[in-house]
């Protein structure tokens, strides 16, 4: 039978020094207005250009034709050819 007095006492854990420092900085510099402002993010010019999609990489008229041909069943799909290409691409990696 084990005595309760011989069990090791549990000590509470403490925050890591990094978290302690972050909490101190947050307490010192936190103002209600700063808390509401949130984080500001600025995007690079390249990312902004991607979001505007000025590149015209896709021919949307051709894409619409392909979509309608697929929906109506006019465009034949060779599943064996697609599977063969996928397997070839996988093994070429």
List the helices and strands and how they pair.
Elements: H1 17-29, H2 32-37, H3 45-52, H4 60-72, H5 79-92
Description:
With 93 residues, the protein is mainly α. The chain is elongated, with a radius of gyration of 31 Å. The termini are far apart.
| Strand content range | under 5%
- Strand and helix order: HHHHH
Query: Spans with pLDDT under 50 lasting ≥5 residues?
Result: none
Structural class comes to mainly alpha
Which outline best applies?
Answer: elongated
Whole-Å distance between the termini? 63 Å
Task: Give the total of beta strands.
Answer: 0
Q: Report on the biggest sheet.
A: none
Structural Rg: 31 Å
Provide the helix percentage: 55-70%
Overall pLDDT confidence = 75
Please work out how many helical segments DSSP would assign. 5
Overview features:
93 residues, mainly alpha, 0% strand
